[in-house]
Amino acid sequence: MKRDQLLPLTETVYYILLVLLEPAHGYAVMQKIEALSEGQVKVAAGTLYGAFENLAGRKLIRPVKSDDPRRKTYETTVRGRDILMQDCRRMEQMIALARGALREEKR
């Protein structure tokens, strides 16, 4: 199977797609990424909104209606979910290979 040209995802894009599996606005996305990554990943507003524009252009996220007209809310599209799943599988394969190699090294 040919790998999608969007892969591998950057850490920031990975977390954005993951967080937006449930609709959220920018500030909430920044907070959730920091919480999920246990403070290891912090996304600045400029980076986030640039990523939103890029991901929306690639049809990986889309704007959705919000109760608060002052905030733009987004969610991951079906294509975005598929790309996220492909990257998860890619990383799982890499981890399995590394674990196998490290077990061999211990012997």
Strand content: 5-15%
Instruction: Determine the fraction of residues in helical runs and give it as a percent range.
Output: 55-70%
- Named CATH topology: Arc Repressor Mutant, subunit A
Please tell me how large the radius of gyration is: 16 Å
CATH superfamily: Winged helix-like DNA-binding domain superfamily/Winged helix DNA-binding domain
Strand line-up across the major sheet: 1-3-2
Mean of the pLDDT scores? 94
Class by SSE composition: mainly alpha
Largest sheet: 3 strands, antiparallel
* Tally of alpha and pi helices: 4
Number of strands: 3
Distance between the termini: 34 Å
Instruction: Flag low-confidence runs.
Output: none
Domains, number: 1
* SSE topology string: HEHHEEH
The CATH architecture can be given as Orthogonal Bundle
User: According to CATH, what is the class?
Assistant: Mainly Alpha
* Shape, per Cα inertia axes: elongated
Please explain how this structure is put together.
It is elongated, with a radius of gyration of 16 Å. The protein is mainly α. Helix content is 58%, strand content 9%. The protein has a three-stranded antiparallel sheet with strand order 1-3-2. It has a single domain, classed as Winged helix-like DNA-binding domain superfamily/Winged helix DNA-binding domain (Arc Repressor Mutant, subunit A, Orthogonal Bundle).
